[in-house]
């Protein structure tokens, strides 16, 4: 989600150290600008670890190697999707397109006069994370994708000039998740209409809370005294895909939807709930549960990872509380050698944390039904990244590390609902907005984007540290680590894959050390089956082409060979958009990406009287529309070769 840096949440007042003020000489290295030397010294623990090694992938394409074989796309201001020579793109499933529910497929109206009921059956706004689930190898499958947030200036004919319960319902239906069916027809892809799998999940879809926090007093409301039944999911950012065939969608900036009080309590402050939040979407004006003063527990029911079975449109989505509550960005899933699930998660807030969950049980044959409760039992950890290039996973377990009753943690449910406060107590490392995570299938190396943090090192704010080594960090970095043993290990070694930046900038901290094409604000990440790391950027629309982003007017997607560190630009997006959502067919001959909020102005809300002021993508008329883009090679080959 593109965000004005100045409005980013920063609700971590804890005094826990930041790598961790234990080494004054090291701190002085960063202060005096010896960044390159200091960071180079930290690469030792992982030297050579990015080689292919003995890891293996289930995909036959892994044997093709990591080499990047396309000509870099030059950076320029455009209002279209640009890919390298030899590639083609196809737009599919735009905001407002029918999802494919039989007998209920209203067409999109370009003046935004679609009703709330129409929107419940159409593609939502602002496509984000997604995953492809094969039904017939690489030729047919289900595409499941998030709809993160809305631009009310485009969603309604007159924007927010008038406001009503119907507009709130339409906004709520434009959030959530889509399940659509696609098939390959020759060189192109088509949406299957209708499809028995087609489904829209919205901010009004009934869901179940499961795991250790289910039924906790902090999750009980007047509408749900049991604390187990929730209406809807929203601000769904990145995602995960499980080996047993389910989709994980992550609830990120939920605080933006709740109107807080003028005097929030300590818990509400730590989660960014304050007076004025509700003005962004105005749901609380017609949906009382979004008024914190009237319903103080409702917000605790959001910020979870939600598991969805895409092959059963009648199934109830489940909010998995064992994975902890956070402004969840993504949930990358991998398996230990003995078959237990490990989930790596970032939290997109300034100075918040990176988490890992390890299941108690092994994945069983039989798909979603056989693993129905797998993510309800396990251990949640939070990461500490130490100055010597090692780190430790700290267990978020009641009774350990000071997580005891007299500090507000009488039960494991307390720990999970208040995971930020628990992580504060454990001394986890305050990171620069950890977003997407991904696991290399060949090496089990883990990557996480730290998008940016302009508050780092500012007066009264946390100082620079080894993992977050730049003050006024406008460019961001990608951190990586290797577990000390299997993925369930509690210790790891880490370094930076890259410090993003533009070498043409005068400020040293903005130059970065990119070996290849310049970029900033890394966000989406995926290591594909042959080991290529794909990087997507999310530069705020208030920042694109300005200041230290003068030479970067558009968001982009890049490919990286992590064994060499080479980074090459593969794609440019249209004006005002973010590049996000990233998945591929098993044969890697089709890549799916999402264009989110094309045409978004600097203030992040469009003028309904001038909807095409910034972008005309993808239709050239009507309204700019978030959409999924299909990318293939003209010769039918593997993407990136």
UniProtKB/TrEMBL annotation:
Domain of life the protein comes from: Bacteria
Pfam families: PhoX
InterPro entries noted in UniProt: PhoX (IPR008557)
Region (Disordered) residue spans: 1-24, 599-620
Biased composition (Basic and acidic residues): 1-10
The protein's name in its UniProt record: Secreted PhoX family phosphatase
């Amino acid at each position: 989600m593109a965000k004005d840096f100045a409005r980013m949440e920063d609700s971590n007042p804890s005094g826990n150290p930041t790598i961790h003020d234990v080494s004054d000489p090291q701190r002085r290295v960063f202060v005096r600008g010896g960044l390159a030397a200091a960071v180079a010294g930290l690469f030792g623990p992982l030297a050579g670890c990015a080689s292919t090694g003995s890891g293996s992938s289930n995909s036959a394409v892994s044997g093709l190697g990591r080499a990047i074989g396309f000509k870099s796309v030059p950076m320029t201001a455009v209002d279209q999707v640009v890919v390298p020579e030899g590639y083609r793109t196809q737009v599919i499933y735009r905001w407002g397109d029918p999802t494919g529910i039989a007998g209920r497929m209203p067409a999109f109206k370009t003046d935004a006069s679609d009703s709330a009921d129409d929107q419940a059956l159409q593609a939502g706004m602002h496509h984000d994370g997604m995953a492809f689930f094969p039904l017939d190898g690489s030729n047919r499958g289900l595409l499941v994708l998030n709809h993160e947030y809305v631009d009310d200036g485009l969603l309604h004919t007159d924007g927010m000039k008038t406001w009503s319960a119907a507009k709130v319902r339409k906004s709520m239906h434009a959030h959530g998740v889509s399940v659509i069916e696609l098939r390959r027809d020759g060189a192109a892809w088509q949406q299957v209409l209708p499809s028995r799998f087609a489904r829209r999940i919205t901010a009004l879809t009934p869901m179940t809370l499961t795991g250790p926090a289910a039924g906790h007093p902090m999750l009980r409301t007047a509408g749900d005294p049991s604390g187990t039944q929730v209406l809807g999911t929203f601000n769904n950012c990145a995602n995960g895909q499980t080996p047993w065939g389910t989709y994980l969608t992550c609830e990120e900036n939920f605080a933006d939807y709740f109107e807080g009080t003028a005097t929030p309590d300590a818990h509400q402050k730590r989660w960014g709930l304050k007076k004025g939040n509700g003005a962004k979407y105005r749901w609380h004006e017609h949906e009382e549960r979004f008024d914190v003063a009237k319903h103080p527990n409702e917000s605790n029911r959001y910020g979870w990872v939600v598991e969805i079975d895409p092959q059963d449109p009648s199934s109830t989505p489940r909010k998995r509380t064992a994975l902890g509550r956070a402004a969840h960005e993504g949930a990358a899933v991998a398996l230990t050698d003995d078959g237990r699930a490990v989930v790596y998660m970032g939290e997109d807030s300034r100075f918040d944390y990176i988490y890992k969950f390890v299941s108690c049980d092994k994945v069983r044959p039989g798909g979603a039904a056989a693993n129905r409760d797998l993510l309800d039992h396990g251990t949640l950890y939070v990461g500490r990244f130490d100055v010597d290039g090692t780190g430790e996973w700290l267990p978020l377990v009641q009774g350990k590390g000071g997580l005891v009753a007299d500090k507000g943690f009488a039960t494991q449910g307390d720990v999970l609902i208040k995971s930020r406060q628990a992580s504060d107590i454990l001394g986890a490392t305050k990171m620069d907005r950890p977003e997407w995570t991904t696991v290399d299938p060949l090496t089990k190396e883990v990557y996480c984007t730290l998008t940016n943090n302009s508050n780092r090192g500012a007066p009264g704010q946390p100082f620079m540290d080894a993992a977050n080594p730049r003050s006024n960090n406008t460019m961001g970095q990608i951190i990586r680590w290797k577990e000390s043993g299997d993925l369930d290990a509690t210790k790891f070694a880490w370094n930076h894959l890259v410090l993003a930046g533009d070498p043409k900038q005068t400020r040293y901290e903005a130059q970065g050390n990119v070996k290849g094409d310049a970029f900033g604000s890394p966000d989406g990440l995926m290591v594909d089956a042959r080991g290529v790391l794909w990087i997507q950027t999310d530069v705020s629309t208030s920042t694109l082409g300005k200041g230290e982003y003068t030479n970067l007017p558009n968001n982009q997607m890049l490919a990286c060979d992590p064994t060499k560190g080479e980074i090459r630009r593969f794609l440019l997006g249209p004006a005002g958009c973010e590049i996000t959502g990233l998945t591929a067919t098993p044969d890697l001959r089709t890549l799916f990406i999402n264009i989110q909020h094309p045409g978004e102005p600097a203030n992040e809300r469009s003028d309904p009287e001038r909807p095409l002021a910034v972008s005309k993508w993808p239709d050239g008329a009507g309204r700019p529309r978030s959409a999924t883009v299909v990318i293939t090679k003209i010769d039918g080959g593997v993407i990136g070769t």
